[in-house]
Design brief:
Number of domains: 5
Radius of gyration: 50 Å
Oligomer: single chain
Helix content: 40-55%
Structural class: alpha/beta
Strand content: 15-25%
Number of strands: 28
Largest sheet: 9 strands, mixed
Amino acid sequence: MSEANRSKKSVGALVGIGVVAVVLAISYLVPGLFQGMENKSYDLRYRLRVGQTNEQDIEDVVIVDIDDASLAQLGRFQNWPRLYHAKVADYLAQGGAAAVAFDIFFVESDSLKPDMVQLYQDAKGEQIRAKLSLSKPFKPVAEKTPELIGAVLENWGYDQDFGAATAQSGIVYFPFYFTTGKLKDSSDMTARRWAYKLSPEAAEKYQWIKSQGDLYAIGQMTAPIPVLLESARGTGYYNIEPDDDGVARSIPLFLAISDRCYPSMDFQIVLDKLGVKKEEVTVELGRYIKAGDKLKIPIDQDGRMLITYFGQYKKFRYISYSDVLTEQVPAEYFKDKIVIVGATAAGLMDLRVVPFSNVFPGPEIHANIMETLLTGRFVRAVPWHIQLVVLVLIGLLTVVVSLRFKPLAAGLTLFGLVMAYFITATVMFDKSLIWVEMVRPLAVVLFTNMVILGYRYLTEEKQKLWIKNMFQGYMSKDLVDKIMANPEMLLMGGDKKEVTVFFSDIKGFSSFSEKLGTPERLIALINEYLGAMSDVVLEFGGYISKYEGDAIMAFWGAPTDDPKHAETCIKCVWAMNQRLQILNADLAKRNMPNLFTRFGLNTGMVTVGNVGSEKKKSYTAMGDSINLGSRLEGANKEYNTAIMMSEFTYAKVKGLYPVRELDLLRVVGKEQPVRVYELLGLSAADVSNKKMKAVEIYLKGLELYRTKQWDAAIALFRQTLEVDPEDGPSQVYIGRCEDFKVLPPPENWDGVFVMKTK
């Protein structure tokens, strides 16, 4: 791994973890920011869930509904005598109901208030006393008229009857309501009666809360009237405390005062139904409430349980209050059922906002709470430590995607991953009631991607400038743009690639300084030459690795891939040779020296990469294949040829271009001989008939040469020169044959010619 890649990955990891830390810090400092949006995502999941539920209606919790039909039959609710409630409670008890919960606050007596009694005495008392005085039997009590009126009116109503029915049934629960306020001790005996002892740890938590007030606590509690409270099976608070946005998603199962806590009426009813004593209840904030071995309820740090909603409005059975009062429903129907007596009639309905509806009756919320507790089907939020691990993993995954892919591809990939995460979270909630966070993970993805994009922009702009400065004079603009768009092509640590390289050099250039006279003219000539040759290389998409005096090294196949690198290189070299002829014609007009350039071509695996110091680097290729290309350029001197290629290059283009075999060479620095060829043109049209005939004769002479038939070979090579007097290879082989006639090679001679110079 290159230093740059290591640095990029280190920065990416720091960014991913850093963004998670920032998101967590924002969550702590501005708790409502992410939680508000998360709650909305929670609501959306609920809408999807209850919208497609196939569950049967629930009947183990029933709602006796004070509905419009009941009001039509029985009159205004405010005028109902509590005898109605007494009869309903008695009827439900006869049917064997497990519990009857009144979702009605009985905080005032059904009897007339003292001020109303006094008002009646003031208005009618004197008339009643006067009438009593006129009747001899009642005259003795006439003076006691005020006491008689008070005794009669103060006991007017059905509280006693309701209380008696409640006591006899043993299954009725009445709610109290409270207002939240600063935590304070209470000596109220009603509160103490229903208190549950907390663990020392929780008590310490509540004592801390005493001054902070971030757990639900009773500021003022309003209890039912004594006659009902004393006869009730139980009581508890019945407030539905929504979240800050007004949605009822959870409920505190306990309220706290000092080291005591008080259950909700829903929880109290379920505990009684399950036979759990208050001594068996333990509370561990942030984890669970344990009710013996019957229930283990997940709660948050505030002691709140998430409410499981089992369906839309009327998922539970509703029965009209008037039907129960008039015994239209068999009492046996209520056997073992929990019955909630509440109102949905217009003007009486206790309407709430729930995750999936803006209008939902309070009694059915309580029904859902009790069903949640009875069935143990709890909504469970993923523990914070697991969510933290998830956030870190999401951050690191975002870093990997953002660094590995281009911005558009990274964006699409991240969008796909986010959608997959959302779908998974939705399915987990739908199937298992597991609440997996959506908003903070999304924030981590967005923020991490934004930071990485900024980081990439800054670093890649710097990288593009470096690429432009390095390559703009050595490659075509199109290739430079391609590399700038795909800088991963340049592996800083090096890469293995197959390339075709050429080396070029001007014959006898060292003597030009004397011919030209001044250094300025020499530099002008070489610049003109290199400019013309470089233009051709860039035109064919080659990379100019270096200039060395008049020499050029260029290759194809790196840094950009070119599957036809050998063909492209050959075409380029031939075009350079043609361009040189045009240049020579122009130089001749200016009395400048004629230029003859020799080229050596080779194909093979090389190491490519950026080489140099920290201050200056250049992209180049290294390896034996590069060295062989350089040796072949020099080998042209031996044969007086212009373009020589190795057998490795020839293998890539065999049959495509006219060539002739030159020799089997062992160049300086190489043990293995290499068969070399001369490029004659790009097509038969580039080779004259005279040249084709000369090459044909030459190849026959070469066969004789390799079988040591020196005289016969000499005859053919001389015949070649008769056709083409300038044929360099034939001249060379005539000399070798003459030498071997004098000093024959060894018996095991393999025809290899060993180069003595580079």
